[in-house]
Write a structure and sequence with these properties.
Blueprint: E1 8-11, H1 20-32, E2 36-40, H2 45-50, H3 54-62, E3 65-68, E4 89-92, H4 93-99
Parallel strand pairs: 1-2, 2-3
Antiparallel strand pairs: 3-4
Helix pairs in contact: 1-3
């Protein structure tokens, strides 16, 4: 595998925020390589951001794109890019950290 083509890593199910300590260590290594980090979670950013847990904070601080919210069959939409249901959001966490509130990710294409 040619790692020069690799741009990022994605953490997805199980629930990444149920195992934040080891994933924060891994995320740190990923970021040191200059790669992007995308994390899928069934939680919403507002709830994660409010928690008093340094490992959750560390993982959020290292995440570039957060896909938040549970998959809901009633909201299923196969036409959505990178997520399965309309209630899920693609959050640009770089801009979210700057703004202090959720900022939706805007694709460059």
């Amino acid at each position: 595998m040619d790692l020069r083509l690799l741009r990022g890593i994605t953490f997805s199910g199980g629930e990444p925020f149920a195992q934040t300590r080891p994933l924060a260590f891994l995320a740190d290594l990923i970021k040191r390589r200059g790669w992007d980090l995308c994390v899928y979670t069934g939680y919403i950013w507002e709830d994660l951001h409010q928690r008093d847990d340094p490992w959750i904070g560390r993982l959020l601080a290292l995440t570039d794109l957060l896909v938040d919210g549970p998959f809901l069959m009633a909201e299923k939409d196969p036409a959505l890019p990178f997520r399965g249901s309309r209630n899920q959001r693609l959050l640009d966490l770089v801009r979210t950290r700057e703004a202090g509130l959720p900022v939706l990710w805007e694709p460059a294409w």
